[in-house]
Batch of 4 targets.
Target 1
Amino acid sequence: MLDERKLAVLRAIITDYVENSEPVGSKALVERYRLDVSPATIRNDMASLEEEGYLTQPHTSAGRIPTDKGYRLFVDRLTTVKPLSLPEKRAISTFLGGAADLDDVVSRTVRLLAQITSQVAIVQYPIVSTAVIRHIDVIRLHPDRALLLLVTSTGRITQAHVELPVETPDADVEAAAVRIGAAVRNLTSAQAVRALNELVRDSASDTVLPPVVNAVTALLAADPTTRVVVGGVQNVARFGDDFHAAMEPVLEALEEQVVLLRLLGEARNDVTVRIGHENEHVGLQSTSVVASGYGMPDDVWATLGVVGPTRMNYPSTMASVRAVARYVGRFLAEG
Amino acid sequence: MLDERKLAVLRAIITDYVENSEPVGSKALVERYRLDVSPATIRNDMASLEEEGYLTQPHTSAGRIPTDKGYRLFVDRLTTVKPLSLPEKRAISTFLGGAADLDDVVSRTVRLLAQITSQVAIVQYPIVSTAVIRHIDVIRLHPDRALLLLVTSTGRITQAHVELPVETPDADVEAAAVRIGAAVRNLTSAQAVRALNELVRDSASDTVLPPVVNAVTALLAADPTTRVVVGGVQNVARFGDDFHAAMEPVLEALEEQVVLLRLLGEARNDVTVRIGHENEHVGLQSTSVVASGYGMPDDVWATLGVVGPTRMNYPSTMASVRAVARYVGRFLAEG
DNA sequence: ACTTGGCACTCTCAGAAGCCGAGTGCCAGT
DNA sequence: ACTGGCACTCGGCTTCTGAGAGTGCCAAGT
């Protein structure tokens, strides 16, 4: 059903459509791409491709445009992600190089991604559970309440409130903090939870320890504040003329942390693409998402990616996302 | 030059234009608003108002629309900010009531503001310098580097890195942290800086104290991380049909923290309005900004506000911004 | 001096008509 | 299996037209 030439035709149509945003016809196709056959032949191929759902016509007797299915085939079989050029790599490296702390790394990354892809960038903060705990701190703000701080090796700070028995002396609180700190330092989230369980078992009499430990465990386990940062929203305005209508739902979706987290999907250390209707969220069904996990090899910390129109340059976007993901992972692993 | 009736005409035109987004003519005006004169009379007044720069015509023989100057007069002299209704007040109160920590308060506020005004909301984090220091912490991440944490009474956490002499024992670092903490606890930023100066003077021999103190002072003084949060960006899509062109620069401006901070302006505890070209930023000259400081009476912590089209409902927007600012201030003062 | 009705004028907008051209599908011929 | 030819379709652009809304101005009325 799909011989070589038909695939070439599909590839050419997508390339052309991505570049010019106009339905592409048989004649223009043979002129611009060296297909070495006549327009009539191409027409037959196009009709066949349309039959099978890879192409569609906006209206009778206009050119063809790719469907989501067409893009999918293109991404899966017709393209290879080219590595970035040396200057591009160097640009990424220097741009990230100046980062001071974790916030800075994330915000630089999101700006960088948005800029080099001209799309909307999304970066998830590294997940605490795969990093190592550096420090725990309990700060008494009120007689009956304390602030719990947790610092990880990636520089990330999470916090929670702890209710305390009112009459607890400050010294006891401090002692509890010290004990917990000693117990979990340099452990991963999973190890820390185990260590804390033991700690509580060994000191059942203590009144301060349990509430604090519970709070720490909750922070470690649920990791409820997994944050997502968005950048380059202004690029939505450039998604295309046909986008002016569908713009509001897209902007709306980008405001919802939950939607974004779902969008990035489960983390994997390679580039994944979700095209048009493959996205669950209705507001984003005329967009595509290109995402990638980042972290160390075999240890994914979080995901980053971009959102753009389905009519996007997939090879170059995928290359950019992959490159940025690798650099960020490497950068965080070092510092 | 501006008798009562002309002002009434201007008010009617703005009211009508805000509602219908269409240039308004003399006939429609006398029909919809009880002006008790003939269209011809209104025409004379309109011509005069145009002469003086309060109105303009999109093209000859269309109706008139207000200029920035017209809106300015309207805001300054033709409107009074009405207090919100009881249900509205209650809605604000319950929406903010459930907030857990500072981040939560800010994010709820920005969502609330965006929703009730249908515009883009901007909320600045409370400035550290007017709050009181609750806790200071120094966490050694590397032999030559430590993380400095600063927690204020509003629950805000700021951080910085400190370079340390490599051979410093952990105990010294801890001791320095304790001394500094004791010196500045429950002081405002300004008081703390003074206290730290004394501390350094009294212990000139110490090698650890100075770098840490310097870092703390820098955090307190420069307050470089004054953050701004934006929400309701999807509302830009509703600013109006004529906005599709000017949309990208607006979105771009909303991404720049610096621009936003400038936009909110110096904090004052009442509502200020900046209309169209009164904004410095070129991308925002077809928008208006309604902002207000918030905090305790006579003690402004930060600013919040909304960005919308110049053709907005000023009285209701101003009322909403004022109400939210007051509630947030009160809420933070209590908790 | 202000207000009003009348009137001529301007200019946009919506719809109709018509042409152009790009593109298609199909068929017969190589 | 490919190609050239041909009839056909249909959206987009231009032009034209009429309708309608709105204006500015003037002369007359209060």
Target 2
Amino acid sequence: MNKIAFDTKNCGTCPIQHRAVCSHCDSAELQMLDSIKYYRSYEAGQSVLWAGDHMEFVASVVLGIASLSQGMEDGRTQMVGLLLPSDFIGRPGRNASPYDVVAVTDLTICCFRKKPFEEMMLKTPHIAARLLEMTLDELDSAREWMLLLGRKTAHEKIASLLTILATRDANLYKKIPLDGMVFDLPLTREAMADYLGLTLETVSRQMSGLKKAGIIQLEGKRRVTIPDIARLMAETGDDMDGGMLV
Amino acid sequence: MNKIAFDTKNCGTCPIQHRAVCSHCDSAELQMLDSIKYYRSYEAGQSVLWAGDHMEFVASVVLGIASLSQGMEDGRTQMVGLLLPSDFIGRPGRNASPYDVVAVTDLTICCFRKKPFEEMMLKTPHIAARLLEMTLDELDSAREWMLLLGRKTAHEKIASLLTILATRDANLYKKIPLDGMVFDLPLTREAMADYLGLTLETVSRQMSGLKKAGIIQLEGKRRVTIPDIARLMAETGDDMDGGMLV
DNA sequence: CGCAGTTTTGATGGACCTCAAAGACCGTGG
DNA sequence: CCACGGTCTTTGAGGTCCATCAAAACTGCG
């Protein structure tokens, strides 16, 4: 299902070992975590958790992407987070997920049984400290996204999303963000719309617009080429230099 | 400036002692905090911090309300948080504020010198643990707001904001949210617009609409009466029962 | 009273949503 | 190999909600 292999018996081979919630742990702590952890995999599109579900675990995303969504009764939904490798799922001290969690791509997560994890948190400040760091980063991302949702035009929203996805993809493969970047969209038009607070038709139209303007090239539905990243970034409405957390 | 008085020499008289970042601290820890803290006050409208400013402190809101805002170069701004008494300003390990912080009402904050506060955090898990709790709560609030910004109509946005403000006000004065609630809007129409991702004209029109529909009554610009809170909540688009964090 | 800041109200246009249908892509099975 | 259906995407036409521009009304204050 997932391409990248790693030895689930050995955290030293784990691809997210340096950024996950366990990244500050010493080997004794890792050993304790090891005794309460297990892996789960999901195929693209599968649901990991429904809003209101009881959670018996918290988890780290190891491979793939998951989405966090909130819905209204009438069917409107808003994605409130994209969880990438090393991101954390769940909240210590809470039993039910307030959000729907869905595997956007094929997904592997590293689960920790909740009760013992919470007990460990009290004893090992390393975990709590790292979780605080990660939560503060997520809060910054959420606020960045509030600006996008509240004030950006559809055009700027699409450009912003593409910029983020392209940059992330480049980082993932340790490439320097260069001209002629190529990557595969992990999101359907509908998922993009849910994330951006738009309809899928508007997303499609804006994508076509960017294509016609020569700012992006599309190959099939998913493959995107960005001949000039600066040109795309100029469409985001953002300051050229600063910002762009996430 | 602020009505409620408390003895700044004695944390036992502090109105936010049970909810602030210091709420889990024992008396020895409070004493340490006491040695690195000082108070500041601002009048309504004054700026506390500009985005990019160097911060020599972190702080707790004691009295009044502050706003966190993000701006784009062309002048568009989006409020990304409303800080109420007990809420925390600043981030350990970061030197510059990424947001504008403005006193919405007259405001008093309890500042801790950043360097020693960060050192204390490493030693006293009580502080870090409470800050983690508070940050997770803020993250939930931010995500709730993302749903509002991305998917709610202007009408629903206004109803949601009024519901939240009314409920908070009732809590603050330990009243049970009842029919015939009366409170003063702490926000100008422009601030409401910035928070809701609307223009001030749209805010004004929607307020007039709710008034004409008899769902709210307005006295002067700021005083709001809500004869039937359930009727207002029915306009928010939310599930009647759950949700409504914050 | 007169002035500045805030709020309300009006008129207009445009960005985006809604409804609708056709087209592209992909796996399955004949 | 191609036909077929299902899913995802594109494109079109029309309508609506909200932003924009503009001006008047209200509030508080010297």
Target 3
Amino acid sequence: MSRSTTARPAAGRAGPQRKPGVRERAARATRESLLRAAIKVFARHGLDGGSVGRIAAVAGSYERMIYYYFGSKEALFVAALEEIYRRFNEAEARLHLDPAQPVESLRAVVHFMFGYYRRHPEFVALLNSENLHRGRHIRKSRRAREYSSAAIGILDELLRSGAAQGLFRPGLSARDLYLLIAAAGYFYQSNRFTLSAFLGENLEAPEAIARWEAFVQDSVLRTVLAVLPAREVASA
Amino acid sequence: MSRSTTARPAAGRAGPQRKPGVRERAARATRESLLRAAIKVFARHGLDGGSVGRIAAVAGSYERMIYYYFGSKEALFVAALEEIYRRFNEAEARLHLDPAQPVESLRAVVHFMFGYYRRHPEFVALLNSENLHRGRHIRKSRRAREYSSAAIGILDELLRSGAAQGLFRPGLSARDLYLLIAAAGYFYQSNRFTLSAFLGENLEAPEAIARWEAFVQDSVLRTVLAVLPAREVASA
Amino acid sequence: MSRSTTARPAAGRAGPQRKPGVRERAARATRESLLRAAIKVFARHGLDGGSVGRIAAVAGSYERMIYYYFGSKEALFVAALEEIYRRFNEAEARLHLDPAQPVESLRAVVHFMFGYYRRHPEFVALLNSENLHRGRHIRKSRRAREYSSAAIGILDELLRSGAAQGLFRPGLSARDLYLLIAAAGYFYQSNRFTLSAFLGENLEAPEAIARWEAFVQDSVLRTVLAVLPAREVASA
Amino acid sequence: MSRSTTARPAAGRAGPQRKPGVRERAARATRESLLRAAIKVFARHGLDGGSVGRIAAVAGSYERMIYYYFGSKEALFVAALEEIYRRFNEAEARLHLDPAQPVESLRAVVHFMFGYYRRHPEFVALLNSENLHRGRHIRKSRRAREYSSAAIGILDELLRSGAAQGLFRPGLSARDLYLLIAAAGYFYQSNRFTLSAFLGENLEAPEAIARWEAFVQDSVLRTVLAVLPAREVASA
DNA sequence: CATGAATGAGCTTTCATTCAT
DNA sequence: CATGAATGAAAGCTCATTCAT
């Protein structure tokens, strides 16, 4: 009853490290271009609106290959989800922070997340699609779950360090703070079209972006700081 | 895209106010049930995923009627968008605030918005769909634009009043604060499925909701207050 | 979750007898031509081999109409099955037998069945398809079951009458006799191609057919007769 | 349709009998498992319904191997047909009959065929598929034709012997009798699903099977016997 | 006013088969 | 010898929409 009548290639990490032949390399390229195309198309049109035909066309491949490598449209969507999570995680890991300087580090975190969402609208769009589908796919993916904890762990370290130095209020929840930062960055990116119409201004203008980030930086710091130096922080 | 397939009944604002006959009332009921069904279906499945067939079925009507009353699927989506904006505006208008008590009023605003998003997931879902489609429909709708300014106007009034009383910092942007509140409430609702998977906890549990609102209330107030009465606010 | 998004016309016997309009008559013609085409195509190519595309083409209609009137390929197959059963039943009902003359009547039954199978290869072919699918469809069809009992009831009457007259052996089972007659006629028709290859002769030649029927007539009568008048029956 | 895509191993009768090496033995095993799988799958799903993918999966091999060893799906079907004919012939050959005891031998023939059909539903199912396809494949197969005559030859011997002993009527056709026996056994097996629905009883129950064989034994003997010993045969 | 019938493009998926190492 | 990769046609089915009374 399993769907794949054709033996699928063992996607993912190969065991014993052979030198890949020409054929193998081309195959991997095909698979990857399909995945990249899927991310692009699903991000632009959603899971329902993004057809396998369009994905194949964007990848310069054939619809059939999607089924060869991924098995189904839905499985391709899961793979796309996992990939954007993986990329986000990777980018996050590259963000080196100094716990000894909690204020600057916290600012850096906000800056990173705002920048990431803006430079990766496909991340935001795919997550929206997944939420439209009530998290059906992510729930099934073991891999996606693994990427979770790191970000909050980092924040927690910063909060503890800040509190130890007497800079931050003690007892703050890293999870809550993470949500606040994510919400501010995500919502601005995700809803930029309706917000632009609603507010009558273009939220994608650089000044608008800068102003928003400054405001949130301010708000986040005020949320955590033990003592508010009236001038300094307000005019960040 | 031409919308006049058949002479449509004058959908929308009736001109001279006649007493509606039986026929007219039945027609209006059909139209409304279609609209309600559209909101439900589009919210659940998105614009692409929600078919006119399903909408007609949910409304207990015929697909043909959608074309009769709305002209096209897209026009029906626009009508659905307008309707949820209208409802939101209406709810907002029912929120009576006392500018003389800016702190309590601000808390009430946060509470209202958090509650609205939670009780009206279709509002959140439809806006997400619209943003996936890059604001294509809202941009065309005159009506939706009208609903914009009220909310921010109210906030502005509160901020001014608070500043005048020496409670709030002066010079704060109502727009920025509005976005922060909206972001915190919206993101939590919109992304509850991926977040629940990501965080490994159920964000729809009452305690989780309460905790989140408390945190945001705190954060919002810390953002605006001129002086922080250490205990009171911290332990909101 | 029901499959038909479009309201399907109430297939089958209409309740209150209105005079059908032009439109209605055309619709019925469409439906019937699709059903006829389905019987033809399924009989020739089987359930799997017969595509809805081909059926639509043979009917001079559109594939879409199959879904409009029948809902699915499988449901169309069920309708085809029911129709050939109905036709067989109808033909059987037209066979008027005189229980007072059991020998002649029995001969007539054999003759009828042999002729029916030969003139209606689609009946045989569709039943074969249904058996390949392990009776999955017929089991679900209430209507098909209704057509069952008549044939055997008639045979039973003949056997009783013959026994009462002292012509037939008493205690014979109509069901067994029915199966024997059906088997002989059906198998000859159903397996005519492999048998022709196997035997090296064309079983569809009129003489071959006549010879076979004569043999079976003889065999059936010898099975039921109480006394065998050596010459008479042997050279039927 | 051209079948030489790659130099095929000499499928079928090996010429000069060399001792097979390890490679050769593995190859033969692959070929045989594919053939066995093909018989199983074609029997269950028909020629059109049985996909090469499923056959390869059941065989635990690759689709490509089907083309390697057999050249095409159709050629594989022909091979499957030939194989089941071969098996049937082989089983028939193991049936040793004593022409001096024609009645017992005839009974044994009926018993053998009934048992074979029942224990080898794939034989019945494949022949049905082949007949659906109008004998297209068997006509092309030299080998299948060879298996024909034996069975009827045996019956002919029995009929002659019986007639010589005065037990059987003279002049009976072995071919006709063979068809009658085959029809009775085959039809019961082939149509067991529709018949079970039609008759409202389970034809696969042991008692039903026994009753049917007894009835047919009786009928066959009554067809051939010159004189009927009233009691003995009637209550077979 | 209202609604069954019709329509064709497009969807996801599976098919048998061939290519290239 | 063996097998992953590729291919395009065709499958069943759903879609939004229009026709015609």
Target 4
Amino acid sequence: MGAFYSSEKKFYVSVDCIILGFKNSRLYLLLIKRRFQPLKGMESLMGGFIRPDENIEDTVQRTLYEYTGIDGVYMEQVGAYGQIGRDTGERVISIAYYALINMALFDDALCRRHHARWAPLNDVGPLVFDHNRIVEDTIDRLQRRAAIRPIGFNLLPEKFTLPQLQSLYEAIYGKTLDKRNFRKRMLDMGVLEKQEDKDKSASRRGAYFYKFNREKYDELLRPGTFFVM
Amino acid sequence: MGAFYSSEKKFYVSVDCIILGFKNSRLYLLLIKRRFQPLKGMESLMGGFIRPDENIEDTVQRTLYEYTGIDGVYMEQVGAYGQIGRDTGERVISIAYYALINMALFDDALCRRHHARWAPLNDVGPLVFDHNRIVEDTIDRLQRRAAIRPIGFNLLPEKFTLPQLQSLYEAIYGKTLDKRNFRKRMLDMGVLEKQEDKDKSASRRGAYFYKFNREKYDELLRPGTFFVM
DNA sequence: GCAAAAGTGTTAGGTGTACACCCATGA
DNA sequence: TCATGGGTGTACACCTAACACTTTTGC
């Protein structure tokens, strides 16, 4: 052991995290100012190098925890990015993951400490290296994924209203949806549990809270589509 | 340069190629017997280590050429696999790509030289490391992808018949399709060009050849779905 | 003439989509 | 009482899916 592949070259391998949150009907992307050369000061995704004792997803969770203070976050791999010269410092092969977080649990103090900011997703400026491309690929993937699996709930608090849920899907797909059709579909799936109480923060009348019932969803034996646009 | 990330560890990074072919109404997967320890002799996907002067996709194309003699192959990334211990030799992070090849162009001599064989996809035995898992993920991805983009044609000769095309989709989705509905849909898309000649190898009557017209497809401004199951 | 695969239309049911008004409430 | 957002049902168009017989031709 130790000599099997010894004629081969090794590479730096990092993860890049596309951390998405949802607030006030908009999707946000957590960005930091890069703290070291090259391109110090330019905006960048969160990232970290993989350590020998870590699985890739461990690195992601560690990085997420470091920047957001949140644990056990929903995440999914977007893909590996390894073009020569993508990192203008040295060659780094990076594996991108997007993470969907409930912004209510987010630790703002950590945010300030890292000089991080939540950028509205549709107003993201130039990022270092190929990070803009990675973000594009992420949205593409999120759209496809959210259409077949109920992953959007990871962006919401445990209790949410149907108007909130609708505005989330509208933000993900970048278009407005018909209220009646949306509600009908969501409720017909039978995985939402209506609560007794209402959210009165957005209107005088108030909107009923709902909870996503994962058990019921799991019983549905994974239909091909969750929500079609 | 050269010192930016020097406190970080480096890793072996390889690519694994899931090479798929189609013949006699079945999908086949190209496998080799592993030539070196550990697990020498066990069946494995094609793979190769990334070299410092190669983009990831260059490594894939090089590996494909080496094992199949084919150039400019259609391929797509499946994802990165980097669990500790996945390679029982040393830690290797591998990036998997599937490739769709036209078996008619395949070089059988190379196949024999590498002790490779085409295994029917639904009859693949145990493979080294996590390669079975990678193959599963590939099929999943292929199914989703083939439903929205006309990638299946990469598995066929330039000229093919509708019965052939149908049996290809049946192989990809593992279920039989209605002949009339299939033909109607395919022809209604308007991207198939009927040829004058027929393939008489599969029946006395013969089936007309068709060609896929990429230009026409490109004009279609990329509809959301290509072929829905 | 017969076996074997190629080719061809119609219909019923279901699904997506468009659309407008009343309700509840706090100020 | 009024302004604001929450909540509700229907009709039509379109698409999907089911279904059976005729044609061609080599042997």
